[in-house]
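Problem statement: downstream parser choked on a complex file, so we are re-checking the raw output for the glutamine run. The parser issue turned out to be on our end (a line-ending mismatch), but while we're here, posting the original submission so the record is complete.
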Amino acid sequence: MSGIIKKLSSMLQRGEVSASELAASYITRIEKLNPVLNAYVSTTFEEALKCAGEADKMIRAGMATALTGIPMALKDNICSDGHLTTCCSGILSGFRPYYDSAVWEKLSAQGAVLLGKTNMDEFAMGSASETSCYGAPKNPVDVTRVTGGSSGGSAAAVKAGIAAYALGSDTGGSIRQPASFCGTVGFKPTYGTVSRYGLIAYASSLDQIGPLALSVEDAAIVYDAIRGKDGRDQTSLTTPDGATSLETDIKNLRVGVPEEFFGEGVSDEVKSAIEESVRVFERAGAKIKRVKIPAFKVALPVYYIISCAEASSNLGRYDGIRYGYRAENFSDIDDMITKTRTYGFGTEVKRRIMLGTYVLSSGYFDAYYKKACLLRGQIISEFDGVFRECDVLLTPTAPTTAFSLGAKSANSTQTYLADICTVPASIAGLPAVSLPCAVGAGGLPIGLQIISGRLRDGTALAAAAFFEREAGVTAELCAEVKL
Ligand code: GLN
């Protein structure tokens, strides 16, 4: 199985390279490539070298895990003590949290080496990372194309080899869709299995942290390191102990293919790449079943109503008093708050706050928010029904390959459609992995999405690992990096 974490880890264990040397080589590569890619928005090199020194001590003391000394990155909405964490928003410019997120707490205890924070859509709202206040990151496969979003910087960093792996957050597809656009693996775990403590909230009932990596095995290693119940996150769940097994009995695997995911807007090359992927499972003896999820057609509006409603509430805390930026030249406190929010937030964030406030307002609550919550229940029960007869579902991750920078930024409805295949699993809180399955026109990667039932994260990952082995389309081989 390919990937980079075990390779680097065994080089570290055998003393072929020290963690400090490894960190230094990643830093050199970042200095060379980041001016082109804009994948990192802030770097923590001094801290990285310090962590690497600690990792070297852990290795010498025989206390290393697979992630000790491995250089990595965090999305700019994941807090780490003393490091800039801005959600790529003007309103959080200069913000340095004074505590660690649960995920970084776990990783740093294992001797992970943090290289910096990665670019993203402002407050994770977008599908191309173009709403970042630092400008969009570029796709390493073709720098005239978007990385996808919102964890675009994390996907670009992993693909370009300037982080061995990275964490992202996924509310409606933000790990999987950039993974698909850049040709990496991206995994959104079951909602609640990874603590959200220290993840700056966008839509709390949907937000989930997960890994972007070069192989399914790498993603599983990182997932195992960050999952687990956390008393500081009320929605956090207990997951089974032990490492996620990537073994699967393919002959007994029931594979569903939901027809709604292949509808209008999904390009022909994507459809045929996914159908070809289904045949890989079929040839190995898996039982293929064509299934239906009729509520698919309401998933996108349900997602945007619920996510905007929650965002309008979560983003109420940015008032110029407690965090980051404060406008100057104000007459009184109301004027200060108004000016701070006017200048601090970007257009897309303001649009969603207004939409969210509208659907929650007393006159429209029943017509929009309440209805969306009811339909969410229907989507969940349709998935439940399908998972009684299937173990996994195979779908496209995104309807197209990466589009050109700027092509859709003026039209938010078009970017919203980029999430059509990823939001259903988010609404239902299900685990879903995206992995490269083919290369389309222009050498651009195509992603296959594998969804499994709630808390069956291992099933989705094992099916993905099977596909990766069998089809031989690994993230390292799929879609050449042209820099
Ligand atoms: N693109 C979706 C949105 O704009 C999903 C974002 C995400 O998953 N954070 O809301």
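For whoever reads this later: The CA atoms of residues 141 and 482 lie 5 Å apart.
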